[in-house]
Structure prediction request, 261 residues.
Amino acid sequence: MEDTRYTLLDWRNVASRRAGARIGEPLVYLPEVDSTNTFAASLLPGATAGTVVVAEHQTAGRGRLRRPWIAPAGSSLTFTVLLAPREVPWAVAMAAGLAVQDVLHGVGIEATLKWPNDVLIDGRKCAGILIESKPVDGAYWLLVGIGLNVHSADPSIPTATFLDAHASEPVSREDLLVALLASLESWLQRAATPHQVREEWRARLATIGQMVQVQTPIGPVSGTAEDVADDGALILRLHDGSRRIVQAGDVTLAAALPKAE
Prediction:
């Protein structure tokens, strides 16, 4: 039986409601695309800062560490925001996470932030953020990709969840997208003073104080997530008492790791 929650996004309504805004005008709607980040990059040079590319279905969506991000058409929000080179990349990543968390709170869903850029509900991932850059004439534009599970989550990922599972009624993707773009615009304005955004992001980061294992490009590292550096890098206190700064990786809480036989 067809799931009636999976309906086409009323993108014209979203575009109308964001008319004149810094983020969301213009809005490019695609029924299907390999990746909204890839398509947004193809618009450069010549695109306007604040352009949003939204797709009903990504056939080759990707998350951190090049992992695939799969969702049925009409089930999620998958979009990319193009930002001009003057933005500070690490502050933009933090602003995006804060924006998503605020909007979920607005629809009655309590969410937490996990380093570096995941949004969790009850410890399960509901959203991810992927920041990429594109060189244009010697400067780097930012591609802010956001994927948010609304009506369902990939069943092959047991640690994933979706908004409808935690909301009192089905969530409107149109209202959610409008609110997300407005919240992101607000946080980006505050990111003009990057360290103020960092302090708010750090205060909300559920990872701090937890025993974690971080999958890094050179292998796993375990320790206590002690703090974050000015640029958002994770500061780990290792078991031998030394400190390690991790710039990128995938975090798993020690409690969620399989026990040794």
